[in-house]
Structure formats: C-alpha cells, structure tokens
Amino acid sequence: MSDTVSPRKQPAAPGADPALTAEVAALIVGALNLDVAAADIDPGEPLYGEGLGLDSIDILEIALVVSKQYGVQLRADSEENERIFGSLRQLVDYISEHRTK
Amino acid sequence: MPLLAHTCPDAVVAYRAGAPLTVRQFLHDVACVRESLGASGHILNACGDRYHFTVGLAAALTAGQVTLLPSTHTPEVIRQLRGFAPGAVCLTDRTDCDIELPQVPYPITGTPAAAGVIPPMPQLEPTQLAAYVFTSGSTGTPVPYPKTWGRLVQCVREEARRLGLHGSQPWSIVATVPAQHMYGFESSVLMALSGGHALCAERPFYPADIAARLATVPRPRVLVSTPVHLRALVGAGVQLPPTDLVLSATAPLAQQLAFEVERRLGTQLMEIYGSTETGQIASRRPTEGAEWHLWPGVQLAARAEEVWAQGGHIEQPTRLCDVVEVKGDDRFLLHGRLADLVNIAGKRSSLAYLNHQLNSIPGVLDGAFFHCEEARAALTQVSRVAACVVAPTLEAARLLQALRERIDPVFLPRPLLFVARLPRNGTGKLPQEALRALAAAHLKTHVA
Predict the structure, then answer these.
(1) What is the mean pLDDT of residues B426-432?
(2) Angle at which helices A88-98 and A56-70 cross, to 10°
(3) Do the chains contact at A58 and B377, CB–CB below 8 Å?
(4) What residue spans of B164-226 are helical by DSSP H?
(5) Which residues in B lie closer than 8 A to residue A47 (C-beta atoms)?
(6) Which of B131, B145, B208, B153 is nearest to B176 (CA)?
(7) Nearest-CB residue to A67 (from B237, B378, B401)
(8) Do B377 and A61 touch (CB under 8 A)?
(9) Cα separation of A63 and A38, whole Å?
(10) What is the pLDDT of residues A23-75, one digit of tens each?
(11) Is A33 on the interface with B (CB under 8 A)?
(12) Which of B380, B416, B443 minimises the CB distance to A33?
C-alpha cells in the first residue's frame, strides 16, 4: 500500500486493502472470541465502545496479535490511547503502512 | 502532616514527556485548581492525566473537600453518586467528558510558577476525610468507604518500606493503571506525594508506549502495572529498558510470567494484595514463593467460612472477597476468588450485582451472569463473564445498550445468549455448570 494517507486525517479514506482487512477482521474475531462473523464487521464502524463494543483490554489483545502477526508495534501519543484506532479501516491502514512482516 | 514529603521547592513531583514538574510548580497549580473548584464539598476527579489528577486531589485536600472515587462512571453510578453527594462536581481534563455532573474543566495551568515565590507547604490533619472510594455492592447501590488522609499515608508508607522506596532517593513512578483505581491511587499518586517521589503524568497503554515512557524517566524507576499489561509487555517483542522494580496487582500473576518479567526487565517483581475497602495489606515476590506477607499491624481473622482483615491502617474490619488460607500471624495463601465475585482487569463486581442490573432492564424476563473461562482471550488471558437471558421482545443491541448504562463495559457479557428459559434445576437454582455448558455449545457453533 503506497497510496495510504494518514488515517487520522482522513478516517473515511477508502484506502484499506480488502484482503488485509478480511485477514485482520478474522484475527480480531478469533483472538477475542467475538460473537460476530469477521465479514460482518463494518470497516468504518468504531472498534471501541459502541459499535463493535471493544474495550481497552480487547485493544491490548489486538495490539499483541498485530505485533506477532505483522511486526507492528501500536503506539499512542495521545491520551485517548484506547480510541486511537477508530475503525477496522484505520487499523488496517496503520498496519499496511508499518508492517515489517 | 505535610501534603508532600518532598523537602525542597525544586524537587520533582512529576515528569511530563520526560520534563520535570517541581514542587514549586505543583503548589502553584494546586492553588489555581483550588480556585476553580468552588465550595461544592465533593469532587469526582475524572482527570486522565496523572499529574492533573494529583493536582486536583491536592486542591480538594487543601480546600477541605472530599474526592469521590467510584469504580466506574456509568450513567447509573453517576445518578447514584448525585444522591450520595448532592452538589458534587466533576473535575475533568477532557473536552468530551460525558459525566452527568456539573463539570469543572481542569484549568490551563501551564504558567510557570514565579522563581522566587515558594508557597508554604500545606499541612493536613491525619483525621481529615480525604476520599470516598466505592465498591459495586451486591444490591445495585455502590457502597462508600471513607478514607482519611492519615490512614491512606500510613498504608502507603508501609508499602514504601516493604518495597524499598522509603529512603531519601527519589524514584520515578510509571503506571499503566488509572489514578482513580485504588491500586493506582495508592501506588502511584499517594506513593509520590507521601514518599517524595516523582510520577509520570502519562498513562502508557501499548507495550511500545510503556517501554518508551520508562526510558524517559530517570532511574531508579518503578513500573506499577497489572498481569494484563505485563503479559502484553513481555509478549510484544519490544526492547525493554532496565527497570528497578515492577509492581503487579488486580489479579494473581502466573509465576512463569513473573520470572519472564524479572528476566526481561532485569528487575524484581513484587505483587501487591489489597482491595478497595482495605487498601493494600500484603505483598509477595512470586518468584520466591506463594505466601503473602501482611503489612505490620494488619491481622486476618477467620469467622466461620469467612476471613476478615482488620488493624493497621484499615478503617473498619472488612471481609475479604477471596478464598484465603491463614498461614500464621503475618502470612497467608490465596486460593482464588469467592464464587460470586467477578474481577476483570482490576474492576470488581459480583454476579449478584450484575444479575440485579440485568433483571432490572424492562423486557428482561429472566437472566443470569456466569463465569465463562472458555472465552478466555488467547494472549492476554483475560476471561470475561457471559450471560443467559430470556427476553423475547428485546434485540441484542438494545439489551447491550441498556446494560452499558448500568454496568462497567468490562462486565458486558461475552457471549450474551438468548434462550427460551434458563436451565434452572428442580429447586429453581441455576447450576453454573448448566450455564457453562450452554455457553460452550454456543461458542462451538459460532466461533468454529
């Protein structure tokens, strides 16, 4: 992915790679035992709080899965660290920009 | 008793982005916040920045006002808090704070304190009521526990002695737990104030943030954390700076993880045992043994099937919510939680409380929460609670929304199972086994 823009500047940017999106959605559903099908996660829907209903413990679990799978260390410079990834699409954009494996 | 144990106006109270904030600055900021607080009497301190929280606490203390520390900020709990302390206000450093209390924005205190001016060190009476901390209770109403300044400090000074943080050497304290949680309140905020140490204003979350934050503060440094964060920290493959001490509390830490943390951070890991009601009462080094060592003066007393803690800094005799085996005057072993207790990542509730909330939702005919170890997360190992509900007219999303207003999100059921009736036995009781079997069957079909 070379055409991604900063996910936080344009959260609605349709840049996310569909294959990677499906893969990350499946990872999240599997790691968290979520009661939804990976394909049913709306890439633009909030991950945190309402929407998919994840909390900070889930986000930590996702951070670990992502670090193991893609070699990406999630970082949060803002205080709103649990909310840094507003949606699956933003997370996928971040991964594709920073992945090392 | 002085508000701060720091002995010089240029001593460091906190670090933000690695830059020191001195006693002089702190006292200046406390005076600013005190002016904003007014005379409401009770302050819900919701500041996310640990320095802001600490300034807010000190401002309340020096104004003779009481800080409220509820275990969660759901609309239901805030409503009950308004009944408990009419006139309470919420001190917040967020622009999007949705807590339904009159809000006092944390003032912009960036102005540096004038160099020549040294405000006098505020003095507090040990008997001053400093805070109410709350547990969720079992009947739907939070139960308040009063904490006086003297006893809070007494407890944390004992912790400092136990951990070797009682000398004249100032430590840097980095914490992944919120300042509002009893453990974080004691081991980061009160430890800094009463021990002359410096706290890190930020609350790092991701493993890479924790490692980076540790590296920005001077040694000796202590990381105040939990099994969940520590498991993530050693599992994420980030480079970890040498850390002189690591604390863990809120849930038992697996011994293997303790060895791993000590090895990876070149450190000593100590576990703290305590509760909202009692504060901290014991510690152990899990790599050396399973026995907990009580704070001097604290005693455990067995009463029938229950174990109660009393003495020392404990305000009133308190029943412990864990299965405890007393091993001597000052030692004990833990054998898990009481069956009704729910403890998820440091948030405590009870099945009775959660059931009460679930069954009070219009449209719910019957419902029950239960422990569901099968749904444990793969890497952080956190397990949640599940629930079965009979609510033919409710959709899952609406029911979850109603629950979200009543209970902390960590207790939202996973999975939430809609059933025609609960698997009650002949006497109307709900065997946990029957509930777990339902959940296991459900998980098999849905997460295959």
Answers:
(1) 79
(2) 30
(3) yes
(4) 182-184, 191-195, 207-216
(5) none
(6) B208
(7) B237
(8) yes
(9) 18
(10) 999 998 888 877 788 888 888 888 877 667 778 888 888 889 999 999 988 88
(11) yes
(12) B443
Cis peptide before B415 (omega within 30 of 0): yes
More confident residue, B184 or B379: B184
Contact B321, B341 (CB under 8 A): yes
Of A50, A60, A76, the CB nearest to B380: A60
Average pLDDT, chain A: 76
Prediction pTM value: 0.89
User: What is the pLDDT at residue A4?
Assistant: 38
DSSP class of residue A54 equals B
Q: What is the ipTM of this complex?
A: 0.78
Q: Which residues of A fall within a CB distance of 8 Å from B206?
A: 60, 63, 73-76, 81
**Bridge partner residues of B172 (DSSP):** B198, B221
**Confidence label for B135 from pLDDT (cuts 50, 70 and 90):** confident
Q: What is the number of helices (H) and of strands (E) in chain B?
A: 12, 25
The pair phi, psi for residue B196, each rounded to 5°, is: 75, 25
The 10s digit of each residue's pLDDT in B149-172 is: 999 999 999 999 999 999 899 999
CA proximity to A88, closest of A34, A56, A52, A60: A52
B416/A79 Cβ within 8 A: no
According to the model, what pLDDT value does residue A6 have? 40
Q: Which residues of A are less than 8 Å from B204 in CB distance?
A: 81
Of A75, A97, A55, the C-alpha closest to B212 is A75
Q: Which residue has the tokens 């959605």?
A: A25
| CA B241 from centroid of its chain's CA atoms | 25
Q: Which of B48, B90, B74 is nearest to B205 (CA)?
A: B48
